[in-house]
């Protein structure tokens, strides 16, 4: 257990279910105070109750659409006014849609970039001045191995994740001078409801079922790296190894792993 979490207030976006809810539970188990943001207040309240019943920790919930600039601004203003000091931000909200380039719907692409990139950057812009003022803080961006390994039928999703990896790498260098740590978490497929929208037919989820990560395992790892100098967390290890090989010999990797790359 990461004892450095005790008493720390940690914002988690996309916290009404899936990985976000798991992060909140693990943080509470370690004595941290989760501050949860998502659209569905009912789901947030359910997570809050579960945390209270399991750990005795009081979590705080805020309903906001991350794509609504006014709502998002007001939510962060309220949080900072009420809680005075926030210790970490876990940027977890995201969405995906798998389609070939010729079949891609512009509204899907637009939504992926607005949520996976712009909303994530916006939350950082709200919190970074606060962290700089305190000369401490930790920003954890939940991204994806898709930002490192490009595969067919995921051009929009891969592009949005690649953008956030690049942004985070710059942010890390600049935030270090403020006493703020930045960590990117790049995971492969995780067993959550993400695939309900990304892969409505279920073919991809079925083909990678045996490789899927357990969200509780990911949450334990993320909770363990909070308030450390960890640069990246990459899961599973073999996918990270594959991404490094892809950077070195992309043509060969695309040829050798063609059938695997075309699972979508």
Automatic annotation (TrEMBL):
UniProt keyword annotations, A-Z: Oxidoreductase
Enzyme class: oxidoreductase
An annotated Gene Ontology molecular function: oxidoreductase activity
UniProt entry tagged with the keyword GTP-binding: no
Keyword Nucleotidyltransferase assigned: no
Protein family (similarity comment): Belongs to the short-chain dehydrogenases/reductases (SDR) family.
Identification of the protein by name: SDR family oxidoreductase
Organism: Aciduricibacillus chroicocephali
